[in-house]
Structure to design on (367 residues):
């Protein structure tokens, strides 16, 4: 996507050395900064500390992290160490496991001296494939948005609610949930986005609002608790969110608070769509609530908040009383029964095993 007319991805190989450059998302929306990763350790820290975040981008960063590791030590032990360090960064997004398994399967059969070049090539392919899949999700999602808009009456504005950031900043490019929104906007559909602020890290208020604003898409930031009220008053035509892990039965795990939006949407007859590239599907799981590991992050993300002062300084201040405990569950699971449809790179389907297998028949036990 473009920032001030210049096309960017969220991650790219440096042109002057074997290094990777990323947009440092901890600084947005107040500062646009590019950071450089030169080692496995730096790639791991960038994921854990959320310089990069969002399931697909976590996967792509891990793939490039392996490439950095192969430059330093392409031995079997080096490959295993890089793999294990990156795997222990964030527990919920399955794209991380998928990308690391792919890199290991690609590199392990090769002679050590061939691994570094092969790793850079494969990481680039993983990043490019993410862009292609997300663009296709946008095309399929646009069809759904168009149908809702036509049902509403052509000149009316289409109001879509989203949670967290599942935009281009969460992927290599385009985004998942925001890809249909960008494509609707490009095609002249009158669209407006309700952006959940997404406490405690505020990915909605900081990142989704920033990227929609830079692209010119009309949007309004709302408190996390406002969505149900808006739905009761007919002000939301559809919800679209992303997912960090989708079970083979169509349960989806996404940023904390997604489940409550799905409940409100269900109660108000508002379609609730979940957009995902297929590496987000964990085909080994059946029950998202019981089986998906939920990341718990530092209490300080809850007890403190950062922002920019009137004179341009970034400051962090405490919100909660000294001594009050904070619990920071980062994700929750929305059961498949609350999801109207899953939107993938191959089209949309029911959130169910049968639905997913119609799009991915090669995953059928009979295939
Ligand atoms: O903790 P984050 O910012 O990595 O969480 C991101 C999300 O929850 C996104 O909605 C999800 O990764 C889908 S991204 C396309």
């Amino acid at each position: 996507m473009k920032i001030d007319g210049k096309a960017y991805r969220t991650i790219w190989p440096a042109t002057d050395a074997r290094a990777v450059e990323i947009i440092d998302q901890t600084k947005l929306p107040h500062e646009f900064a590019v950071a450089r990763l030169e080692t496995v350790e730096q790639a791991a820290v960038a994921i854990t500390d959320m310089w990069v975040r969002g399931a697909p981008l976590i996967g792509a960063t891990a793939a490039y992290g392996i490439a950095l590791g192969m430059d330093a030590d392409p031995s079997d032990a080096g490959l295993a160490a890089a793999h294990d360090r990156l795997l222990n960064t964030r527990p919920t997004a399955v794209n991380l496991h998928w990308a690391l398994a792919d890199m290991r399967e690609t590199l392990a059969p090769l002679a050590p001296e061939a691994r570094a070049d092969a790793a850079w090539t494969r990481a680039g392919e993983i990043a490019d494939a993410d862009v292609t899949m997300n663009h296709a999700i946008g095309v399929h999602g646009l069809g759904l948005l168009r149908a809702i808009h036509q049902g509403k009456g052509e000149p009316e504005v289409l109001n879509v609610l989203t949670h967290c950031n599942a935009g281009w900043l969460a992927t290599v490019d385009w985004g998942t949930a925001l890809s249909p929104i960008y494509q609707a906007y490009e095609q002249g559909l009158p669209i407006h986005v309700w952006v959940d602020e997404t406490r405690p890290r505020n990915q909605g208020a900081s990142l989704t609002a920033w990227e929609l604003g830079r692209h010119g898409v009309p949007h309004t930031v709302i408190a996390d608790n406002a969505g149900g009220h808006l739905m009761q008053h007919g002000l939301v035509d559809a919800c679209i969110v992303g997912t960090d892990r989708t079970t083979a039965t169509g349960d989806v795990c996404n940023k904390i608070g997604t489940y409550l939006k799905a409940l409100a949407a269900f109660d108000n007859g508002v379609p609730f769509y979940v957009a995902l590239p297929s590496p987000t599907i964990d085909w080994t799981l059946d029950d998202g609530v019981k089986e998906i590991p939920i990341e718990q992050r530092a209490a300080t993300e809850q007890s403190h908040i950062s922002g920019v002062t009137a004179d341009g300084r970034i400051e962090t201040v405490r919100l909660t009383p000294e001594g009050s405990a904070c619990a920071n569950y980062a994700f929750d699971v929305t059961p498949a029964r609350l999801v109207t449809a899953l939107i993938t790179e191959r089209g949309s389907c029911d959130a169910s095993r049968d639905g997913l297998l119609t799009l991915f028949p090669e995953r059928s036990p009979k295939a």
About this structure: The CA atoms of residues 145 and 151 lie 10 Å apart. The chain has a mean pLDDT of 97. The chain has two domains: 2-129, 143-363. The domain at 2-129 is CATH 1.20.120.420 (Four Helix Bundle (Hemerythrin (Met), subunit A)).
